[in-house]
Amino acid sequence: MPLPSEPRVFDHQVHTLGLATDEALTALLDRYPEELFDINAYSYDEEGQVSLETGSRGRADGATILAEIKAGRLWVNLRDVQDAHPELWTPIHEAFQANARALGVTPIRTTGQLILSSPGTKVPYHFDAAGVMLFHLRGRKRLFVYPPDEAHLPQAEMEQVIMRTTTEELTYRRAFDADAQVFDMEAGQALTWPLYAPHRVENLEVFNVSVSLDFQTWETRLTRGAHFANGVMRQRWGRRPAAMGQTPMAARAALWACSLAMKKANMAENRIKDFERSFELGAGRQPAA
After folding, report:
1. Which residue blocks in 166-284 are alpha helix, DSSP H?
2. Structure confidence by residue, pLDDT tens digits, 124-151
3. Which domains does the chain have, with CATH numbers?
């Protein structure tokens, strides 16, 4: 089924359910499985290029974690909301389904992550390897969405991210901002954008809470597998694959089938699965400035 060709903004009511209050978040952080936390801190040079540190929750309780997010420059993702927080996932998924029908999208898989982020923090220029609908629940944030073309997202760089040989962050130039569509998001809004469109985020001086719902269709699944196979062939054998926009769906399906065999044979080493964690919440060790 078709995917959005332009960013689209929708309204929702999930923010009215009381699930993003300090009390609700503190209780959730107390019980959320530690292995589902991703705790990131970003720093930037004068050209906007990013450095990443990752941390762990350690023994910090929910109140401590929430306080450190509010006082720091952290971006905390709580993964697998669809399993670990059904009270939130149910209304999010219902809102997504209504919007997906309006877009003509038929998902075959959906997952979610709850995002808690510090006032003023930023997420660097990156892309997501799935369709995304971002539901904003609290605070204000600004999203810059860029065209998903070769100038803003070289295919070879995209392949490396999909192969997990590098993180999602991409080469960014400030001149790209002239081509961005900019959205200031308030609680009660949801935003979706074209598949693989690069984007970056700036929080607007307040604590923010959002849910990122990732969805796969058969089109996105086949396209992702095709990029994986192309990346392996480029890396191992020096092949220069055709642009994905010039690759028909039947050819993408064949490449997707190849990617399954390549993954089984471990033909692309995952270089980010053991990313070293350099700080711990509640332990007095803050990320470097």
Report:
1. 218-237, 249-264
2. 999 999 999 999 999 999 999 999 999 9
3. 8-216 (2.60.120.650), 226-264 (no CATH)
Beta strand pairing status for 208-216 and 131-138?
antiparallel
Edge to edge, the sheet with strand 277-280 lists 8-11, 189-192, 131-138, 208-216, 109-117, 74-78, 37-44, 50-56, 277-280
Backbone angles phi, psi at 187, to 5 degrees: -55, 135
Model confidence pLDDT, tens digit, residues 154-163: 999 999 999 9
3-state secondary structure of 208: strand
Q: Beta 189-192 vs 277-280: how paired, if at all? A: unpaired
CA distances from 26 to 21, 33, 72, 92, 239 (A): 8, 14, 17, 20, 51
Tokens of 18: 């009381």
Return the half-sphere exposure (C-beta side, CA atoms, 13 A cut-off) of residue 111.
Answer: 10
